[in-house]
Design a protein that fits this description.
Layout lengths: L18 E3 L6 E3 L1 H12 L6 H8 L10 H18 L7 H16 L5
Antiparallel strand pairs: 1-2
Helix pairs in contact: 1-3, 3-4
Length: 113
């Protein structure tokens, strides 16, 4: 008798794993601390946002891929993080880069490549 095929793991990635975010300029990796800071800011808005679920299920091999509205949610959270820190220099450099990339993508509109 043959062994049954194993199903792919449906478990979420480890909470201490690096995640990637898909951007038009290519994937951008975030450390667990950067991801946690971003998710904390999004959660403060009081909703179980689909963006939060996307980040919780992401990994480097399965990047977060957001629509325009999701990018706006992330951009707003990153802007608030920078304001709360008192300076852009006080937030994670990868979060600053993600904010800059999403700012450009949002400004270009949904159909720009």
């Amino acid at each position: 008798m043959s062994e049954p095929a194993s199903a792919p793991s449906l478990a979420p990635p480890a909470p201490d794993a690096t995640v990637a975010v898909a951007t038009r300029a290519g994937p951008l990796e975030l450390s667990p601390a950067a991801r946690d800071a971003l998710l904390h800011q999004i959660r403060r808005r009081g909703s179980d946002d689909p963006v939060v679920r996307a980040f919780e299920q992401a990994s480097v091999s399965e990047p977060v891929s957001l629509d325009r509205l999701g990018k706006m949610v992330v951009f707003d959270a990153l802007w608030t993080l920078a304001e709360g820190a008192g300076s852009d220099d006080l937030i994670d450099p990868q979060l600053r880069l993600l904010r800059d990339r999403f700012r450009e993508e949002i400004a270009q509109g949904p159909t720009a490549k």
